[in-house]
Design brief:
single chain, alpha/beta, three-stranded parallel sheet, disordered C terminus, Carboxypeptidase, AB_hydrolase_fold, serine-type carboxypeptidase activity
């Protein structure tokens, strides 16, 4: 049905690496160009796939770099792209956190009304003291929940401590990337416990061998390398979304409805800013599956397992 290439980007994230540590110092534009070069080389070495319809996809911050499309040889049969809860422009991404928090019941009507009255629609950079104070209250209340998914328990994210100070940043670039400490351990009832387990699984020799990781390149896999010297040099990706869609590329923009980091309200707002005509009326979309468990077997020391198939309802 389809083939999927998973790419660690930007360079030096995941198992990707640079021979010179300075090669890890990239940004929105440069990392996008690296992805283009990778794809061009990949299709050059696998020309049998050139005629296949090709789509780019990514979540969250990928909303900035996925639309940076540039046609080069070999001519890839690019048909479109998909982005989930995409970051595009701060005036949209962060400006709907107040409305989202109010909709989720995280802030009261009184706090929301005070924000509307004193901030006058600008919830990113407060222009007066009263606005700053009410936004501080909003941020304080949001900090008590997992803003990536408001229904989840607030847990350790299972990410090593970031390297923020200038001295450590300089060391990172001039010397080498040193292994981090193992991530903090969330409790088993945390969604992020899977991230914690992933750290040990991805650093297991059998896993690395199965993935074909070259020896001597990446000493340690880390889920989120927040210390990477990445430059956010694109103010807004919305013009690129507009350019691509006007040129006929298909776009699927989807949102999780419990994300307060990039609320679905902000996604709807920047899409509306493109001023496209609405072809179909707003309607509900349903995807229902029957889970049919056909067999359970606890014999022969196999433990519990089930053979299941999913069929459309």
């Amino acid at each position: 049905m389809a083939s999927i290439i998973f790419l660690d980007s930007p360079v030096c994230s995941g198992f990707s690496y640079a021979r010179d540590p300075k090669g890890c110092d990239v940004g929105d534009y440069s990392s996008s160009l690296q992805v283009q070069r990778f794809l061009n080389k990949w299709f050059t070495h696998h020309p049998q796939y050139l005629s296949n319809p090709f789509y780019l996809g990514g979540d969250s911050y990928a909303g900035k770099v996925i639309p940076l499309e540039k046609r080069e040889q070999p001519l890839i049969n690019l048909k479109g792209y998909l982005v989930g809860n995409p970051i595009t422009d701060p005036k949209f991404d962060r400006n709907f956190r107040v409305q989202g928090a109010h909709g989720f019941g995280i802030i009261s009507d009184q706090i929301y009304e005070a924000a509307m009255k004193n901030c006058k629609g600008n919830y990113v950079i407060p222009e007066n003291q009263l606005c700053a104070e009410v936004l501080e209250t909003v941020d304080s209340l949001i900090s008590e929940i997992a803003d990536g998914h408001v229904l989840y328990k607030k847990c350790v994210v299972a990410t090593p401590k970031p390297i923020d100070d200038a001295t450590r940043r300089k060391f990172l670039l001039e010397e080498s990337i040193k292994p981090n400490e193992a991530p903090g351990r969330p409790t088993v009832d945390c969604f992020t416990y899977g991230y914690y387990l992933a750290y040990f699984w991805m650093n297991n020799k059998m896993t690395r061998d199965a993935l074909g990781i070259k020896g001597g390149t990446v000493s340690e896999w880390v889920r989120c390398k927040k210390e990477l010297p990445y430059t956010q040099d694109m103010p807004s990706s919305i013009p690129y979304h507009l350019n691509l869609t006007k040129r006929g590329y298909r776009a699927l923009v989807y949102s999780g409805d419990h994300d307060l980091q990039v609320p679905h309200l902000s996604t709807q707002a920047w899409i509306r800013s493109l001023n496209f005509s609405i072809v179909d009326d707003w309607r509900a979309w349903h995807l229902i599956y029957h889970l049919i468990c056909e067999q359970f077997d606890i014999c022969n020391n196999k433990g519990w397992w089930s053979y299941c198939s999913r069929v459309p309802a």
